[in-house]
Amino acid sequence: QVQLVESGGGLVQPGGSLRLSCAASGFTFSPHVMSWYRQAPGKERALVAAITTASGSTAYVDSVKGRFTIRRDNAKNTVYLDMNSLQPEDTAVYYCNAQDRWRKTDYWGQGTQVTVSS
Known about the structure:
Elements: E1 3-7, E2 10-12, E3 18-25, E4 33-39, E5 46-51, E6 58-60, E7 68-73, E8 78-83, E9 92-100, E10 105-108, E11 112-116
Parallel strand pairs: 2-11
Antiparallel strand pairs: 1-3, 3-8, 4-5, 4-9, 5-6, 7-8, 9-10, 9-11
């Protein structure tokens, strides 16, 4: 069974930090590009960050550059999103995504809620 299970969400005050984790199972993890998306109420799901395995390249949406860091541990089949200096506009459900264009696979987790509020 293919699974992507997000964890680490919760309530944090503005300026605080959270680490999101995405544990993958049921598929070959390392060839997949891993990404984090988020969706706020009434908004479209949007890419936050992505990381490859072959090159180690990362990409971030402008609004999180310098604050968020995506990283992966292939030995643990896990991808992380380290979030710093969180602001209310970061409030959203955060989703983990795994994509392999060669295998033509595209997997999604169920999401974890991040709420930034004082």
